[in-house]
């Protein structure tokens, strides 16, 4: 048998290797922005076309490259950051592997214009599909200007798996945010298809967060700070009202590098224990500063995972520091670590008095005397023995009686079949079983089916809308503004009349029938939150889900028995389904004999 193992051609090997570094346009954005920071830039501009599929351009005013360095930068494993193996364990820069530019050039058309500050002339390099084309001198500004065009033009199988522009641009924004949040001392700009999305000026950490996520977040932010010998922690967490169901605004950084850590996320979640509704996660922006030798950033191709030498100590530091800050800002109870240590001694200091030889008397805490035998439910009267006997006989008769077998739907008598529990659930006797009902979920299903029927009936007509006497204003951040532009074409047919009045203020002049003015803001927040990474085609389904939720009641809204009776009848008309489409139970069935066996 002949030999079958052979070396791959360089261009094929480079394209395969590029798959680890370049997964989508956002991967290139991350690498180029980080290179600009490593070049000591003070101003960085990102220009995107077609969500980065056709153009990704990063312009910086950093120190630039020499003619030789500009050519070497595109060779595999060429780097200025490390010289030996030991350098890997004390990385202080963003890039260091020497793979990024070679991988990017292998799957696109790349042009670089660069000039050092003290040079009279710069360098222009053009590489296509990993193949060097030319290198010429050029007049250009100080710094570097990278242009990456036609991503995956030579790997069509990879290009067809890219998502639509809205999704890909959302990933670009994510990477831009992560870099910009960690470097508030630099200026950043982002342009998409000639439209300015972000213009971030230099400022404080708080100002950078507000510039990225909008002014409405500022009142919710609580500062976090702890400085110990081996670690520094600073940043912000949002108050419980700033929590969300999605994990969009959760940011962890170490030494200016963004990283993901479910373990540390859990530490923050535990610090908010008892303060958040089920299913909600806190919003936070937390920055760690450690000795580079205490961490390893070389365990993931995208460098988004970091290994810590003392992760259990950092977990405890995050949890305790956040918990203390929540207490200081009256969000949760906390020990007062800043209390004057002399305060307790002052409270026990004797007061001036003639009755004490030392010139004072010790303060005595007041005593409260409680009658432990007192029972407010027992009247102060003598109970005759025959009364006790009668009560005992009645009790035994009740617990041995058979359950009521009233036919709910023939007699329409719920008196003996329904009982509300303090937690909002209802108990319902149906034949020989008892059902525990979640009327809120049952109502959601009824509303959903009614809306489906209404939609089929009025498929060719626009829903009615009601004009508002006074317009409502919704302040969007740049991310919400991008999402709004992706689905605004659907809004008129849904009954909305809204438009961007100025800057990022959304003016709402009309709402669809059934949506109250008091619900409008929350409804929009839900839409913006749930539309993360969703396509335009999915918008209508998400809109319908949110509309159903907005119209649905919770189980705590069903207080009166007549409302519960009607809900059960409406739900029965649907066939009394046990589950919602998302798999959640509408009721739980317990055989009556199971109750009897408990006694």
TrEMBL record:
One of its GO terms (cellular component) is mismatch repair complex. It comes from the Bacteria. Pfam families: DNA_mis_repair, HATPase_c_3. GO terms for biological process: mismatch repair. Signal peptide: none annotated. Keywords: DNA damage, DNA repair, Endonuclease, Hydrolase, Nuclease. GO terms for molecular function: ATP binding; ATP hydrolysis activity; ATP-dependent DNA damage sensor activity; endonuclease activity; mismatched DNA binding. Residues 209-327 form the DNA mismatch repair protein S5 domain. The keyword Cytoplasm does not apply. PANTHER family: DNA MISMATCH REPAIR PROTEIN MLH, PMS, MUTL (PTHR10073), DNA MISMATCH REPAIR PROTEIN MLH1 (PTHR10073:SF12). Belongs to the DNA mismatch repair MutL/HexB family. This protein is involved in the repair of mismatches in DNA. It is required for dam-dependent methyl-directed DNA mismatch repair. May act as a 'molecular matchmaker', a protein that promotes the formation of a stable complex between two or more DNA-binding proteins in an ATP-dependent manner without itself being part of a final effector complex. This is DNA mismatch repair protein MutL. The lineage of its organism: Bacteria, Pseudomonadati, Bacteroidota, Flavobacteriia, Flavobacteriales.
């Amino acid at each position: 048998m002949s030999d079958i193992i052979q070396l791959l051609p360089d261009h094929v090997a480079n394209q395969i290797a590029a798959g680890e570094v370049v997964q989508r346009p956002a991967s290139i954005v991350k690498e180029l922005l980080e290179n600009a920071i490593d070049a000591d830039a003070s101003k960085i501009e990102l220009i995107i076309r077609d969500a980065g599929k056709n153009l990704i351009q990063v312009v910086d005013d950093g120190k630039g490259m020499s003619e030789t360095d500009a050519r070497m930068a595109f060779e595999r494993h060429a780097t200025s950051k490390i010289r030996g193996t030991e350098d890997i364990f004390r990385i202080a820069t963003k890039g260091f592997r020497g793979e990024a530019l070679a991988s990017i050039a292998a799957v696109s058309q790349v042009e670089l214009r660069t000039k050092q500050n003290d040079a009279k002339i710069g360098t222009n390099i053009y590489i296509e599909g990993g193949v060097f084309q030319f290198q010429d001198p050029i007049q250009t500004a100080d710094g570097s200007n990278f242009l990456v065009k036609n991503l995956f033009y030579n790997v069509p199988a990879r290009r067809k798996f890219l998502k639509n522009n809205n999704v890909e641009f959302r990933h670009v924004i994510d990477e831009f945010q992560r870099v910009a949040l960690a470097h508030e001392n630099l200026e950043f700009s982002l342009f998409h298809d000639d439209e300015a999305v972000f213009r971030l000026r230099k400022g404080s950490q708080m100002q950078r967060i507000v510039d990225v996520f909008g002014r409405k977040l500022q009142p919710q932010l609580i500062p976090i700070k702890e400085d110990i010998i081996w670690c520094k922690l600073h940043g912000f967490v949002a108050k419980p009202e700033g929590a969300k169901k999605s994990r969009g605004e959760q940011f962890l950084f170490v030494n200016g590098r963004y990283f993901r850590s479910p373990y540390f996320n859990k530490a923050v979640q535990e610090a908010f224990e008892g303060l958040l509704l089920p299913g909600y996660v806190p919003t936070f922006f937390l920055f760690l500063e450690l000795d580079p030798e205490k961490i390893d950033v070389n365990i993931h191709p995208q460098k988004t995972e970091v290994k810590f030498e003392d992760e259990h100590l950092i977990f405890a530091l995050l949890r305790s520091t956040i918990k203390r800050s929540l207490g200081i800002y009256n969000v949760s109870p906390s020990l007062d670590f800043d209390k004057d240590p002399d305060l307790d001694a002052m409270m026990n200091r004797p007061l001036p008095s003639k009755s004490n030889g030392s010139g004072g008397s010790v303060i005595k805490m007041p005593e409260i005397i409680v009658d432990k035998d007192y029972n407010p439910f027992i009247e102060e009267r003598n109970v005759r023995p025959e009364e006790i006997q009668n009560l005992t006989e009645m009790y035994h008769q009740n617990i041995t009686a058979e359950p009521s077998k009233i036919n709910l739907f023939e007699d329409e008598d719920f008196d003996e079949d329904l009982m509300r529990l303090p937690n909002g659930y209802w108990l319902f006797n149906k034949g020989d079983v008892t059902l525990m009902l979640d009327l809120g979920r049952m109502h959601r299903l009824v509303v959903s089916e009614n809306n489906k029927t209404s939609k089929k009936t009025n498929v060719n007509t626009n829903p009615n809308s009601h004009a508002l006497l006074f317009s409502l204003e919704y302040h969007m951040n740049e991310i919400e503004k991008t999402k709004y532009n992706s689905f605004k074409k659907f809004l008129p047919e849904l009954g909305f009349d809204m438009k961007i009045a100025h800057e990022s203020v959304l003016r709402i002049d009309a709402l669809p029938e059934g949506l109250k003015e008091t619900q409008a803001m929350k409804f929009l927040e839900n839409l913006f939150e749930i539309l993360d990474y969703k396509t335009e085609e999915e918008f209508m389904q998400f809109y319908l889900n949110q509309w159903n939720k907005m119209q649905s009641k919770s189980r705590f809204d069903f207080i009166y028995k007549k409302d519960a009776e009607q809900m059960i009848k409406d739900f029965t008309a649907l066939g009394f389904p046990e589950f919602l489409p998302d798999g959640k139970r509408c009721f739980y069935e317990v055989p009556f004999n199971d109750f009897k066996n408990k006694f």
